[in-house]
Specification:
Blueprint (H helix, E strand, L loop, with lengths): L2 H13 L7 H16 L4 E4 L3 H14 L10 H10 L1 H10 L6 E3 L4 H10 L5 H9 L5 E5 L6 H13 L2 E6 L6 H4 L2 E4 L5 H24 L4
Parallel strand pairs: 1-2, 1-3, 3-4, 4-5
Helix pairs in contact: 1-10, 2-10, 3-10, 4-5, 6-7, 7-8
Length: 217
């Protein structure tokens, strides 16, 4: 692994020493996510309550710049300007390259219709079935590791050839028994787990951004 990518884990653990026990799982999760993006695939993210907010937060960090500028390639910038000199110039200066991420908590019309018409616990599974493709990654966030709708989504993920990353509390719950990698932060109370989830996923986002948009590419 490139040293400049690994340094983000070192910085995380320096700031949050209790996460040292998660070092290997964070690195392994990064490797799965990196491989996903190397093949032009995407990450699908789900969670409930505060973890739903985290799902949207993660997507926001991946779909636009987080710490590093992500200008569009010069050839695409020229294509934009050739189509519309005025708007294209503005777009070529302001568009940012993305690491594709879809928060499965964000589609209110679809999710409420499915919950109302079909099955409340299958709401993430239905979207994963619709959006997901082999080579994608499903990131399931559950402080207990036992969220029923997240677990249903893992079944669909595995059936589609989608790798599963779990982000949980200390026990890992059922999610830890099926995920390819589970990052189990060392807390048991919900709010304390959530407080550690944020620096963990910020670290993952920084690692990915550095890998794909850093100075060495």
């Amino acid at each position: 692994m490139q040293e400049r990518v690994l340094k983000h884990v070192d910085t995380l653990i320096e700031r949050y020493p209790e996460l040292d026990e998660c070092r290997d799982s964070i690195i392994n999760a990064y490797e799965i996510m990196k491989d996903c993006y190397k093949t032009d695939n995407k990450i699908l993210i789900a969670g409930n309550g505060g973890s739903a907010a985290d799902a949207e937060h993660i997507a926001g960090e991946l779909m636009k710049r987080f710490m590093t500028a992500r200008p569009v390639p010069p050839e695409f910038a020229e294509k934009l300007k050739s189509i519309d000199p005025v708007r294209g110039e503005n777009l070529s200066n302001n568009l940012e390259r993305s690491l594709m991420a879809i928060p499965l908590v964000a589609h209110e019309a679809l999710t409420t219709a499915y919950i109302n018409d079909v099955d409340g616990l299958g709401v993430f599974a239905q979207q994963l079935y619709g959006f997901g493709r082999s080579g994608d990654v499903f990131l399931g966030i559950s402080t207990s590791g036992n969220s029923k709708n997240v677990m249903s989504a893992t079944v669909v993920a595995r059936a589609l050839g989608i790798k599963v990353i779990g982000l949980t509390g200390k026990s890992g719950g059922e999610l830890a028994t099926v995920a390819d990698v589970t990052i189990k932060v060392p807390e048991t109370e919900t709010y304390k787990i959530q407080e550690l989830h944020l620096p963990v996923y910020h670290c993952l986002c920084m690692m990915l951004e550095d890998r794909f948009f850093g100075s060495e590419g």
